[in-house]
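Tutorial handout. Part one gives the primary structure; part two gives the three-dimensional structure as tokens.
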Amino acid sequence: MTTTCPRQWMDDQLRLGQTLCLILDSEGELVARQALLSPHDLERYSCIYSQTPISDLANAGPFIFLIDNPGDARLKPLLDEPERNWGWLASIRHGDLPALTRHWRERLIIGTRPHRALYRFHDNRVLGRALAHLPEEARPEYLGPAISVCYWQGGQWNVAHNPAPGEYPLPADPGWLNVPVSDDRAMAILHSNNYRYLWAKHHEELRRLSQRQDPSTWLTEQLSYAQQWGWTDPEQVRFLVIRKLTEAEASIINNWAPHEGEAPQVHYERLFNEAKFWAGEGSL
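Part two.
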């Protein structure tokens, strides 16, 4: 990996005959997304979440745009403020946008039911950590058709090249899913995933909550409880945040705290059954 100026990298890739792509986190960059969408036809961009099991989240998911001109004024706000972590740049062969789209769609959903999650490939921080961890010979399976990528990481622009661009099947044990994550980063990912889920599935409840307090701060508090209680299973965390959200105005469970010496799973099952009982769906 090397450092560079993104505009210089784009110029170099164009001189080599490559096509430029912008991978954009559209949820956090709606203005940039709409500006890039307006003059494009369907062959000039792809919405990654569409035509997948999470198509209902497509409007909040990542987009890939083909870029013709490094000097495009619509790119300037992004390139001038990379600390917004809006995504990253890639170069591909002419006509490879469908292949790049397929590549990332195949790598979107990780884990098995009921412990499935979304892999945020479009986050430049996720990409940067994976590339720092993977050996060069593992890059092709990760980057797929991307020939070269340019991304913001650690306060500077970095470039990584793919030694063998192409289409590869998803490996049985993807190395990029075994990247060590700090505790702070793990909590940030957990917060982001749950926040997106709540806005997609419980928008009205979250909107009502926002009239009384900041939803992001509220979610941080709930995840802190889960951490204190040893609730690490996604099913446990999801139960906590959904139940707390839906009961924000009238609580069913009076005491969420664990009993003395109560194991995390026993604590969870007790509260889960109590919630079902008060909802008329089971017995204690």
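Part three, for discussion. The chain has two domains: 2-178, 183-278. Strands lie at 2-3, 19-25, 45-47, 62-67, 87-92, 109-110, 117-118, 148-153, 156-161.
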